[in-house]
C-alpha cells in the first residue's frame, strides 16, 4: 500500500490530535476523580493526582516534540517514517493509571494512542510542481476561505471588508438603523456594488434626487436596491404619464421612498380611489398626493375612518371636507382620537362653528395643549373672541400658527413672561 505525503500527513495528524486531546483533558479527569474521594483523604490524594497529571503531561509533550523533530527530518531527507512508534516510546508516552476503584466506576479510561497491530510502509511520493495542472474534481474540492465573517450581530464587522457597505456609509446611510430591521442586513451583505447598487443609485440621480438625499432615502427604504431596474423605471414613467412633473416625482420619492416598491397596478388603484372617494378634480387630487405622497403607500383604513368621522360624527358637509383636505391633507392620516379631542374643544368649548373650522382646518393639525393654553389665556384676559362679525376678532389661523412671542404681542397684547406665568397656574 503506497500513499502520498499528503495522505501520510492526514494519518499522522489524527493520532497527534487524539494524543493532544487526552493531554488537555487530564486536569478535568483529575478534578472529577477528586470529587469522588472522601473528604478526610482528599489532601494527600489531591497532591498525588496533581503530580501524576503533571508527569503525564510532561511525558506527552516530550513525546510530541520528539515526534515532530523526527517528522521534520524525514520530510527534509525524503525518507518515509513509520506511523507507529516503538515499544520504548509507547511506554514513555503512556499515562500512569491511578489505582482507584472509583476510576472504573466513573467510566473514564484512557484509549490507546496508536494502533500497533498495523504497520504501514509508505513510499516517498514526489511533490507537485507549482504550475502543474490539476483536474476539475481536484479544483472543486479546493476550499477558499471567505473574506467576510461567517456570522455577526452587527453590520459594523462587515463594513471594512464589504465594498457595498462602505459605499453606503459614505452616502450617509444609517446602517445602525437598518441592522435592527429583519433580513435587511443579510440582504445588504449579499449585494454587489457594481452590479446591484451602482445602477440604482444612477437611477435615483437621474430621477432628480440630490447627493445628500440618497442616504436618507436608502435608510428609509433599502429594498430599492433589490428591486428590478425595469420595474422602477416603469413606475416612474406611470406617474409622469398621470401629469406629475419630474420635480414632483422626485419630491414624492424623497418624502415617501416606498412609493417605488408599489406596482403600476397598485398605484393606479390608489389614484382612482382618492379621486372617486374625495370627489376632487384630477388637478386637486395630484396636488393632495404630491403634498402627502405617503397616502399612496400607507393603509387606506385610517383614511376611510377619518372621512366617516368628519362626515358622521363632526357633521361637516361634503364640500367642507373637500376644502379641509385640499388645505390640510394630513387630516386624512391624523389620529382619530386627536381629531375628536381638538374638534370637541374648538367647537363645544370655544364655540367655533363648522364653517370657521372648515375655513381654517389647520386648527385640526395643531397640538391640543397649545390650543387649550392660548384659549384659556385669552379668556383670562377677556379677549377670547372668535366671531368675525364682532370687534377684536381673533382668527383660528393666528391662534394656532403664531409662535408664543408673536401671539403674546400681536393677539393677546401681553408679554411673554405673563403668558409663561399663566401656564404655571394651569
UniProtKB/TrEMBL annotation:
Main location: mitochondrion
Stretches the record annotates as Disordered: 80-110
GO BP: mitochondrial ribosome assembly; mitochondrial transcription; regulation of DNA-templated transcription
Compartments, as annotated in UniProt: Mitochondrion
Gene Ontology molecular functions: nucleic acid binding
Entries under InterPro entries matching the protein: MTERF, MTERF_sf
GO cellular component terms attached to this protein's record: mitochondrion
Keywords of the record: Mitochondrion, Transcription, Transcription regulation, Transit peptide
Gene3D superfamilies, sorted: Transcription termination factor 3, mitochondrial (1.25.70.10)
Pfam assignment, any one: mTERF
Compositional bias annotation for Basic and acidic residues: 80-93
Entry similarity comment: Belongs to the mTERF family.
Name used for this protein in its record: Transcription termination factor 3, mitochondrial
Species per Swiss-Prot/TrEMBL record: Chanos chanos (Milkfish)
Lineage: Eukaryota, Metazoa, Chordata, Craniata, Vertebrata
Gene: mterf3
Amino acid at each position: 500500500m503506497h500513499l502520498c505525503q499528503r495522505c501520510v500527513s492526514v494519518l499522522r495528524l489524527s493520532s497527534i490530535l487524539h494524543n493532544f486531546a487526552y493531554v488537555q483533558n487530564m486536569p478535568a479527569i483529575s478534578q472529577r476523580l477528586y470529587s469522588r474521594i472522601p473528604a478526610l483523604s482528599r489532601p494527600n490524594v489531591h497532591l498525588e493526582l496533581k503530580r501524576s497529571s503533571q508527569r503525564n503531561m510532561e511525558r506527552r509533550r516530550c513525546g510530541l516534540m520528539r515526534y515532530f523533530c523526527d517528522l521534520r527530518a524525514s520530510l527534509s531527507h525524503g525518507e518515509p517514517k513509520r506511523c507507529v512508534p516503538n515499544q520504548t516510546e509507547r511506554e514513555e508516552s503512556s499515562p500512569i493509571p491511578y489505582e482507584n476503584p472509583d476510576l472504573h466506576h466513573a467510566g473514564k479510561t484512557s484509549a490507546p494512542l496508536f494502533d500497533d497491530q498495523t504497520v504501514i510502509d509508505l513510499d516517498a511520493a514526489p511533490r507537485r510542481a507549482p504550475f502543474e495542472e490539476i483536474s476539475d474534481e481536484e479544483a472543486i474540492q479546493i476550499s477558499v476561505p471567505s473574506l467576510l465573517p461567517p456570522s455577526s450581530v452587527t453590520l459594523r464587522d462587515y463594513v471594512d471588508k464589504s465594498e457595498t457597505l462602505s459605499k453606503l456609509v459614505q452616502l450617509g446611510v444609517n446602517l445602525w438603523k437598518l441592522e435592527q430591521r429583519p433580513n435587511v442586513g443579510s440582504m445588504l451583505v449579499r449585494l454587489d456594488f457594481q452590479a446591484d447598487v451602482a445602477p440604482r443609485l444612477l437611477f435615483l440621480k437621474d430621477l432628480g434626487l440630490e447627493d445628500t438625499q440618497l442616504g436618507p432615502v436608502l435608510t428609509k427604504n433599502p429594498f430599492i436596491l433589490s428591486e428590478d431596474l425595469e420595474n422602477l423605471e416603469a413606475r416612474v414613467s406611470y406617474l409622469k404619464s398621470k401629469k406629475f412633473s419630474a420635480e414632483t416625482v422626485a419630491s414624492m420619492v424623497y418624502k415617501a421612498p416606498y412609493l417605488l416598491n408599489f406596482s403600476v397596478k397598485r398605484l393606479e388603484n390608489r389614484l382612482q380611489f382618492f379621486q372617486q372617494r374625495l370627489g376632487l378634480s384630477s388637478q386637486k387630487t395630484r396636488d393632495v398626493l404630491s403634498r402627502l405622497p405617503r397616502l399612496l403607500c400607507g393603509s387606506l383604513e385610517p383614511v376611510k375612518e377619518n372621512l366617516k368621522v368628519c362626515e358622521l360624527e363632526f357633521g361637516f358637509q361634503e364640500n367642507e371636507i373637500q376644502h379641509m383636505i385640499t388645505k390640510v391633507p394630513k387630516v386624512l392620516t391624523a389620529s382619530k382620537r386627536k381629531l375628536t379631542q381638538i374638534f370637541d374643544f374648538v367647537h363645544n368649548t370655544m364655540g367655533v362653528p363648522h364653517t370657521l373650522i372648515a375655513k381654517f382646518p389647520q386648527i385640526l393639525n395643531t397640538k391640543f395643549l397649545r390650543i387649550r393654553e392660548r384659549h384659556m389665556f385669552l379668556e383670562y384676559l377677556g379677549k377670547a373672541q372668535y366671531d368675525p362679525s364682532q370687534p377684536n376678532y381673533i382668527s383660528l389661523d393666528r391662534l394656532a400658527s403664531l409662535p408664543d412671542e408673536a401671539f403674546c404681542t400681536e393677539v393677546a397684547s401681553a408679554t411673554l413672561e405673563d403668558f409663561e406665568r399663566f401656564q404655571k397656574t394651569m
